[in-house]
Amino acid sequence: MKAAVFGASGYGGQILMRLLLDHPQVSKVLPVSSTSAGKPVYGRDSGLGPDLNGKLSEGRTFLSRDEALEEKPDAVFSALPHGASAEFCEPFFGKSVVFDLSADFRLRDKNIHLQAYDAPAPFPELRSTAVYGLSEIYETQIRKSNLIAIPGCYPTCSLLPLIPLGREGLITSVITINSLSGISGAGRSAKEASLFVERSENSVAYNPGLKHRHQPEMIQEFNAAGGNAPIFFTPHLTPMRRGMLSTISTQVKGKPEAVFNQVEAALKAAYQGQTFINLTGSRIPSTRDVIGSNRCDIGWTVEGPINGSSMLYLFSTIDNLVKGASGQAVQDFNIRFGFPQETGLPLRGEV
Ligand SMILES: NC(=O)c1ccc[n+]([C@@H]2O[C@H](COP(=O)([O-])OP(=O)(O)OC[C@H]3O[C@@H](n4cnc5c(N)ncnc54)[C@H](OP(=O)(O)O)[C@@H]3O)[C@@H](O)[C@H]2O)c1
């Protein structure tokens, strides 16, 4: 199979290049760049290593979009910024299966997209055909779709523990989500806020609540799962290159032991047989465990009771660039083309 990567020089694109070059079902990888077409891929990504199996295009250079179009790729992975992504993908709609890592097709309601992104939803006529690519939740729909909107990293990290509990109607009171993100979440392009001096030895909360564009995505998907509770979301930047942790707290009716068991039963039922969901029980997972892996580790603890309710704490960790972006895109590619979900994807974290 042939796969094109748009934005192959960015962080998401670089991870896609690595995963697809090592993917046993991919025979050719087409790295596309809007600014570096014709230039060597190694000039922007010296860590890629030699092209041992000859999967890169001749000359090992970035291609233009038109050159990639001529190659008729089976799959297109777009790791471009929202706003630019859908437009760049346009000539491939209906020809290749498109995996869009941007937010261009994530929100089903075009008015909510307009509010969140301050720009009209691109290609409104295609919106209803796009599937939200949270692999473990939308497997059946992904199998049949030609346009897959890869979820954001914060929503992936927070929704995977929350959706099974929403489905079971376990959560009815306010949900507080505090998420920590590594700096690579902001992308590779140069900006003052990403400078070493700004980010090292410095953690900061930013864009709380609806000011962050991932909040409507979380509400959309929690509600779609039958969940019905207000979400208070605060993202934080913390000085690590990669990794994401969501600490989610809420009240659940019942005594602590019963709540612990209900949460365990709901998560086990939802993720039985799902390789990339690792339930750690009362052990709190850490970001280091999942860096380099496509796993989401989920732990939980319960305290109380207070006034007949218990305090539930859920902890969820992912690598923002793998399960939070490019790994999940490849997992969806595997689902869409009928390969085992694990094909070409790392399960173990780096040491
Ligand atoms: N970083 C994360 O943790 C993460 C997690 C989940 C989702 N995402 C999403 O994934 C996408 C890529 O993120 P990233 O972190 O990889 O970003 P990035 O490192 O900034 O890379 C984006 C790439 O897109 C290309 N590009 C930029 N502006 C463009 C335009 N107007 N038209 C065409 N190409 C353009 C650039 O490559 P060329 O100049 O070579 O074309 C750039 O290298 C974004 O939509 C982001 O929101 C990122």
Low-confidence stretches: none
Distinct small molecules bound, one entry per kind:
NADP nicotinamide-adenine-dinucleotide phosphate
Structural class: alpha/beta
CATH superfamily of the largest domain: Dihydrodipicolinate Reductase, domain 2
Strand percentage: 15-25%
Number of domains: 2
Strand order of the largest sheet: 8-9-7-10-13-12-11
Mean pLDDT over the full residue set = 96
Q: What would the principal axes of the Cα set say about the shape? A: globular
Radius of gyration: 20 Å
The CATH topology name of the largest domain reads: Dihydrodipicolinate Reductase, domain 2
Characterization of the model:
- There is one protein chain.
- 30% of the residues lie in helices and 21% in strands.
- With 351 residues, the chain is of the alpha/beta class.
- It has 2 domains: 128 residues, 3-Layer(aba) Sandwich (Rossmann fold); 169 residues, Dihydrodipicolinate Reductase, domain 2 (2-Layer Sandwich).
- The strands form 2 sheets. The chain has a 7-stranded mixed β-sheet with strand order 8-9-7-10-13-12-11. Strands 2-1-3-4-6-5 form a 6-stranded parallel β-sheet.
- The protein is globular.
- The model has no long low-confidence stretch (mean pLDDT 96).
Layout of strands and helices, then pairs:
Blueprint: E1 2-6, H1 11-21, E2 28-32, H2 41-44, H3 65-70, E3 75-78, H4 84-89, E4 97-100, H5 110-117, H6 124-127, E5 131-132, H7 139-144, E6 147-149, H8 153-167, E7 175-181, H9 196-199, E8 204-205, H10 214-224, E9 231-237, E10 244-253, H11 256-271, E11 277-281, E12 296-306, E13 309-318, H12 322-337
Parallel strand pairs: 1-2, 1-3, 3-4, 4-6, 5-6, 7-9, 11-12
Antiparallel strand pairs: 7-10, 8-9, 10-13, 12-13
The chain binds NADP nicotinamide-adenine-dinucleotide phosphate.
